[in-house]
Design brief:
There is one protein chain. The chain is of the alpha+beta class. It has three domains: 3-90, no CATH class; 96-205, no CATH class; 216-269, no CATH class. It has helices at 3-21, 57-65, 140-144, 150-164, 175-184, 216-229, and strands spanning 35-36, 41-42, 49-50, 71-73, 78-81, 84-86, 99-101, 108-111, 116-120, 126-132, 135-138, 190-196, 199-205, 213-215, 241-244, 247-250, 268-269. The strands form five sheets. It has a four-stranded mixed beta sheet with strand order 3-6-5-4, with no helix packed on it.
Length: 277
C-alpha cells in the first residue's frame, strides 16, 4: 500500500472517530491516542483518565440532570463524562439529605429544576425523582446501576401531566389514584397549583361529577354561568331550592344562584327535568 493511500485511510478513520467523540475529543492531532470501531472504544490515558473511587456529587448531578452528556459503552461496562471513565460500581446513591419532601405549601406544589424529590404515599412507600428541566423523572443514576424504578417513573408522570393539562388524566389514573397523590402531597380540596420547572397549571380539587382535578378556567366558566348568567337552571322556577356542595341555595328570579366562589360547583343535586340539560 502506497504512502498516499495509507495517509488517506488514516485521515478518514481520524474524521470518523472525531465526529463520534465530540465533545470528548481533544484538539490534539495525535491520532494514535484514540481508536474506535463500530462496537467498541479503546480509551487511552493520553485523552482519558480512570476515576479513582466514587464519582463526585458534581458528576452525579450531571448524570441525573444532564444525562445526554454521559457517554455509555456497554461492551466495556464503562461510562464517560468529559474525559473521566468510570463504572456503575463507582456511582454512589444520591445522599438522602438532598431529597426534598413533596409537600404543597398553601395548596401550591412546586418542583424546581435541578432538585431531587421524594414522594411518600399514605402507605409509607417512598418514590424518588429528579426534576429535569420541566419534567419529573426517576433518578437516572440509579438506573445506570440497574435499579429500575417504574413506580417512581409513574409518580413523576402524574405530576408532569398535572403541570401541563390534566383534562384527560382519568385515562391513565383512576379517581382513587389521583386522590392518593394529591392528598399525600398535602393538597386539599379547593383551588391548587402544580408547578414543574417552568410549567404550571391551576386546578380546582372537586368531589363532583366532572373529575378530581378540574382546570381553573373550566371552573370559572361554570361558576359564571351559575352565578351571573342564569343559563344552567333556566328550566327551573325561581324559588327552587338547589343543593350545591352540601349547601342549599334558593334560585333567584333571573335563574342565578348566589353561591360563594370556591364552592364545589360540580357537586350539585340538579332538580328533575323532562329533558337533558
Amino acid at each position: 500500500m502506497s504512502t498516499d493511500i495509507r495517509m488517506a485511510s488514516r485521515i478518514a478513520n481520524y474524521q470518523k472517530m472525531r465526529s463520534y467523540l465530540e465533545p470528548l475529543y481533544s484538539e490534539s492531532r495525535d491520532t494514535k491516542s484514540v481508536r474506535q470501531d463500530r462496537d467498541s472504544l479503546v480509551l487511552t490515558k493520553n485523552l482519558f483518565k480512570k476515576q479513582s473511587g466514587m464519582i463526585s456529587e458534581e458528576f452525579l448531578d450531571i448524570i441525573n440532570f444532564d444525562f445526554t452528556s454521559v457517554r455509555q459503552y456497554p461492551d466495556q461496562g464503562i461510562f464517560v463524562i468529559g474525559r473521566t471513565i468510570f463504572s456503575s460500581g463507582q456511582i454512589p446513591d444520591v445522599s438522602p439529605d438532598r431529597f426534598n419532601e413533596v409537600k404543597a405549601v398553601n395548596n401550591v406544589l412546586t418542583f424546581k429544576s435541578g432538585e431531587y424529590y421524594k414522594f411518600t404515599d399514605s402507605y409509607g412507600k417512598v418514590y424518588k425523582m429528579a426534576c429535569v428541566t420541566n419534567s419529573m423523572a426517576p433518578v437516572y443514576s440509579d438506573s445506570l446501576k440497574g435499579k429500575v424504578d417504574s413506580e417512581s417513573g409513574r409518580c413523576g408522570w402524574f405530576w408532569d401531566i398535572m403541570a401541563e393539562n390534566a383534562t384527560f388524566i382519568g385515562l391513565y389514573f383512576s379517581d382513587e389514584e389521583q386522590k392518593e397523590y394529591l392528598n399525600a402531597a398535602g393538597i386539599t380540596e379547593g383551588f391548587f397549583t402544580v408547578i414543574v420547572g417552568n410549567t404550571a397549571q391551576e386546578y380546582f380539587y372537586s368531589n363532583g361529577n366532572s373529575g378530581i382535578a378540574v382546570l381553573k378556567g373550566i371552573y370559572d366558566t361554570q361558576y359564571n354561568a351559575i352565578k351571573n348568567e342564569g343559563r344552567i337552571f333556566d328550566y327551573c322556577e325561581p324559588g327552587t331550592v338547589i343543593k350545591v356542595d352540601g349547601e342549599e341555595y334558593v334560585l333567584n328570579e333571573d335563574h342565578t344562584l348566589d353561591i360563594p366562589y370556591g364552592a364545589d360547583i360540580f357537586k350539585i343535586e340538579y332538580p328533575p327535568s323532562n329533558y337533558t340539560i
